[in-house]
Amino acid sequence: MTTFDSRSLGQASELFDLTIAELRPAAEGVVSLELRAPDGADLPGWQPGAHIDVLLPNGIVRQYSLCGDISESDRWRIGVLREPASRGGSSYIHEQLRQGDTLTVAGPRNNFRLVEADRYLFIAGGIGITPMLPMIRAAAAQGKPWTLLYGGRSRRSMAFLDEITGLSGGETHIVPQDELGLLDLQKFLGQHRADTLVYCCGPGPLIDAVEAKCQVWRSGALHLERFAPSDKAARKEKGSFEVELARSGQRLVIPPYRSILDVLQENGCKVTNSCCAGICGTCLVKVLSGVPDHNDDVLSIEDQEAGEVMLVCVSRSKSDLLVLDL
Amino acid sequence: MVDVRRVRGGDGLAEINDELDQILDSVVENTRLATESFFASYDKNPDPKVLAAWLAPRAWREIDYVFLLNEQIRRYGLEFERKHITLLAKQSFQEAEHYEIVGKAIESLGGKVPTSVPPEAKPWSDFLWDCLERHPLAAIAAWNCSETSASGSFEPTFKAGERHDFAEVVRVYKQIETDEKFHVGLGRQVLAAYAKTDHDRDEILRAMRGMRDIAWKTFTPESVAQARSA
Asked: Is residue A247 included in any domain, yes or no?
């Protein structure tokens, strides 16, 4: 449980007591809160992707993306999904708060900035739509083409649909799972587009799927915001990464203190080798995606920079996932 | 894509790299020709004991490398980085494994595994040990040339293996072929890392030239015939 103390706010800036000017349902299980200064004064400016820390009276701190209009400087808006497994954050907001109540908030801060691009692909799952709304407005305001893929359990559970319909200059794909199934990520991400940045926010499985599809995209094309740290990230030791064997689809975790070669052999994947020191080149393997971190002494600098092959005895990975032709 | 002669780790050979490559190319070619000549002769009289006699100096090379590498480490190893001590020791272990597997192949052909230097391998062995006495890098240069020479024998051996169905010898030499990439790369890296002076480079060149003139000779049919008649 995140409790309210100075450390839990990290480097959060000023604290504000704001009034809940409006509290209304935005979808099944989702409420929208509009926050204003008690005296109606302007609030600190923010950019798409920003979030605030909400310090609830029960001592819990939760982060929520700002989903209003950046031009409305006297108000902030957040959308809150009531989590079925709420530990006292979203359930408190849904059950205890009322219009006119006062909330203490900190921020805004932004770890999910909208970077300049020619074109945007926004992918939202459920309440992950909230940071996307101001991003889409910003892209539309700049005249940049955008595409939104928005998935949810059902149309009733998907917040802000009416607003999305009114956004101009882009292409919207609303995909309620009970009507249309899962988002067709292959269609939108199967081929790398050099002019496009991908922004994704949603539940862990969606993020993982988008990350996997984006392995064929250039580094830096994908921007993610998770609701919570991924299970993988939580499990991941510093310096570890995953290797996928393309021919079987098997995924292996490479801990920081073991070589790819060791882990491959331990899992029954035979790779010719001899020196285990990056000298002989006999464990050369083709890299299908991901960015190898070369530590060998024998591949040419050109081959190392191309990143299409690697020596698995000593080299590691700069990306979270390497897909090898094994 | 992978050229173990271009291994990184030092620039002490920069001035003589081209000459070293010429020496190595030459000894590889001479060994290939000698091996083809041996198997051309073997084709006419495919006696397994002849093949075993041809393999005997190969086996001796493996165990002599073990002795030499360990002496190299004992005498000069502490002048090297620790990783090079480790890798030279690893090479020594692999050479011991090669002695064991080549030995088994010789026995499977009805031959006898040498436990002392065979007369036909003596010039090779003497030169190697003489190099060790002369200079800390000379023996490494000599065995680097000798190890490289062996790569000229692999393809003719594998082709003959298909013709005469000596699968065990081929299997053994496939493993040796893999490990020799390591040994050749390591030797080159050690030489490049620790050669600092013209004297060092002169000794390296002397060792390589000397081994170039010796290393291929035991691959010839004449060498085998002489050994069998002795």
From this structure: yes
> Is pLDDT of A138 > 50?
yes
Residue in chain A closest to B88 (alpha carbons) equals A275
**How far does the CA of residue B117 sit from the closest CA of chain A (Å)?**
27
Residues A199 and A262 reside in one and the same domain: no
**Separation CA B84–CA A85 (nearest Å):** 57
Q: Which of residues 67-106 of B touch A (CB under 8 A)?
A: 83, 87, 90, 94
Q: Which of A42-56, B3-17, B72-86 has the lowest mean pLDDT?
A: A42-56
Residue at which a domain ends, from A218, A233, A248:
A233
Measured in angstroms, the CA of A222 and the nearest CA of chain B are apart by: 32
- Hey, is the C-beta of A299 within 8 angstroms of any chain B C-beta? yes
Phi-psi region of A15 (alpha: psi -120 to 50; beta: other; left: phi over 0): beta
Taking 60 as the threshold, does the pLDDT of residue B128 lie above it? yes
* Inter-chain CB proximity B1 and A272 less than 8 Å: no
Say whether A279 and B87 touch across the interface (CB within 8 A). yes
Taking the C-alpha atoms of residue A295 and residue A260, their distance in angstroms, rounded to an integer, is 12
Whole-number mean pLDDT of chain A?
87
For residues A125 and A201, give the distance between their C-alpha atoms in angstroms, rounded to a whole number. Answer: 6
Give the helix/strand (H/E) hosting A324.
Answer: strand A321-324
The answer to whether the CB atoms of A309 and B94 lie below 8 A apart is: no
Query: What is the Cα–Cα distance from A21 to A99, expressed in whole angstroms?
Result: 6
Give A139-188 pLDDT, tens digit per residue. Answer: 999 999 999 999 999 999 999 999 998 888 899 999 999 999 999 999 99
pLDDT at residue A277, as a whole number: 95
A167: CATH: 3.40.50.80
Question: Mean of the pLDDT values across residues A66-71?
Answer: 94
Name the architecture of domain B15-229: Up-down Bundle (1.20)
CATH code where residue A12 lies? 2.40.30.10
Closest by Cβ to A298, choosing from B94, B178, B185: B185
Residue B23 CB coordination number (10 Å): 22
**pLDDT higher for A132 or A113?**
A132
Q: What is the mean pLDDT of residues B130-159?
A: 96
A81, A89, A94, A91: which is closest to A127 by C-alpha? A81
Q: Is residue A1 part of a domain?
A: no
At A185-210, the pLDDT tens digits run 999 998 889 999 999 999 888 988 89
What is the pLDDT averaged over residues A203-220?
85
Residue A108: cis peptide before it, omega within 30 degrees of 0: yes
What pLDDT shows up at residue A236? Answer: 58
Quick check: A271 contacting B, CB < 8 Å? no
Cross-chain residue pair B4–A309, CB shorter than 8 Å: no
Q: What distance in Å separates the CA atoms of residue B106 and residue A101, rounded to the nearest whole number?
A: 92
Minimal Cβ distance to B7: which of A274, A297, A303: A297
Partner residue opposite B182 with nearest CB, options A275, A300, A309: A275
**Domains of chain A: total:** 3
